Amino acid sequence: RSFRASSPVVSMDYDPTGTLVAMGQGDHSIKIFDVANNYITHHFKGHIGSVNFVKFHPKELKLISVSMDVIKVWDLMTRECI
Fold it and tell me: Distance of CA 68 to CAs 54, 57, 72, 78, Å?
């Protein structure tokens, strides 16, 4: 699959099933892309700087993101930063 990012992709990670890919971007946002169905499932904003690291939790529907400001944990079910 291919997709266009609206900003430079700084970090990426696949979920444990391999169906989702998270992209930390230079515009301070995170997008989660459904590889099988070819669409964006989540778009998170909230960091002050570029998202330098993203990592899916190995057992829960959560995503960890790191920027220059903080570490955030996102709940993929509620779509909120917890």
Answer: 13, 20, 11, 25
